[in-house]
User: Which sequence fits this backbone?
């Protein structure tokens, strides 16, 4: 819930996920606008989830290799805008 509170995800309808395979970084952009690559957020009062099955498959991610808790960082990318990133560690 801390991430959901910090990112204010309950005020958004969608998320767009990006993957940098070279650096093993996943970025999340939250939006209320339909755009290419969006996934719908499933929300309750304090948190939200997404179904990332297609994202995992397309990016050939072996979930067992990356299963752990990650720290996140909020950054702004010039071509995307504000995103939250996690750096995957094996």
Assistant:
């Amino acid at each position: 819930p801390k991430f959901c509170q910090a990112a204010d995800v309950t005020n958004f309808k969608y998320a767009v996920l990006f993957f940098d395979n070279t650096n093993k970084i996943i970025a999340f952009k939250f939006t209320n606008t339909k755009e290419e690559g969006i996934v719908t957020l499933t929300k309750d009062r304090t948190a939200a989830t997404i179904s990332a099955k297609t994202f995992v498959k397309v990016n050939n991610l072996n979930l067992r290799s990356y299963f752990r808790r990650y720290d996140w960082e909020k950054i702004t990318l010039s071509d995307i805008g504000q995103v939250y990133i996690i750096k995957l560690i094996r």
